[in-house]
Sequence to fold (305 residues):
Amino acid sequence: MARRFSQVDVFTADLSYGNAVAVVHDADGLDDDALRAFARWTQLAETTFLLAPTAEGAAGGADYRVRILTPGRELPFAGHPTLGSARAWLAAGGAPRTGGVVVQECGAGLVRVRRGAGPDGTGELLAFAAPPLLRSGPVRHADVVAAAAALGLDDDAVVDAAWVDNGPGWVGLRLRDAAAVLAAAPRPGAGGPANVGLVGPHPDGTGPDGAAVEVRAFTREGGDDGPWHEDPVTGSLNAGLGQWLTAPGSDRLAGDGSAVLPGRYTAAQGTALGRRGRVRVERDAEGQVWVGGDTVVGVSGTVAL
Fold:
């Protein structure tokens, strides 16, 4: 049967410069095999399927439920698919039950997506509330060394490391500067964690569009010897990095209880791939980290599923 279909570019206001996600609407009735086959067929980093919320989700205020699949596995949560799914749902006529906040049900629970005007007062940004980290804290030294070697980093490039896992399994490596992030050159067969994010500061916020930091995300699904894949722009990683680096005391080198990054900043990602991803991160007065950006619906139509 024909089902509504959207493809949304996330973390960009200009189509083709962010990270695309395929969204299948009205996916109730599709079995797991159909979902997996279609996710493999799109060959995008993630494909999402919108369904009616469960009874428990609906009781918690969920507007819809989403399943998030890569070509090889299902994820409990992912950032750019969350914003892309919300944009597709709204563009298709979805009306949130709670004012300006969309509530999404996913494998990680209920995730709030707030709506707001762009920085020039026009348009509409979407931002999701970063879910709690499933794993945080220090990374084993041996894993840091292996990750640095696998990504071709200089011996003195890594300043600090932490688990910033909200579902995909991210390890965050804080590098000395943005130049070190952009110089990373991944190679297979070096071992270490399979999902690694790099972040490094631009001097005095001199990055593109005033970005404070440069971010890159690398994953591999084929084990230690599998090839690395670089994700263009990554909401889940930026969420974990934001929770880590805006927290008081995160600057362990300073030792004065200060945070590495301010409570509001912009991250640039995708530069090495010719993309222009811009991720806006904010820690509010209650300590909740929000991760947002622009979204563009690039394709609308139907798909025969």
Notes: The radius of gyration is 19 Å. The domain at 135-284 is CATH 3.10.310.10 (Diaminopimelate Epimerase; Chain A, domain 1). Residues 79-91 form the longest helix (13 residues).
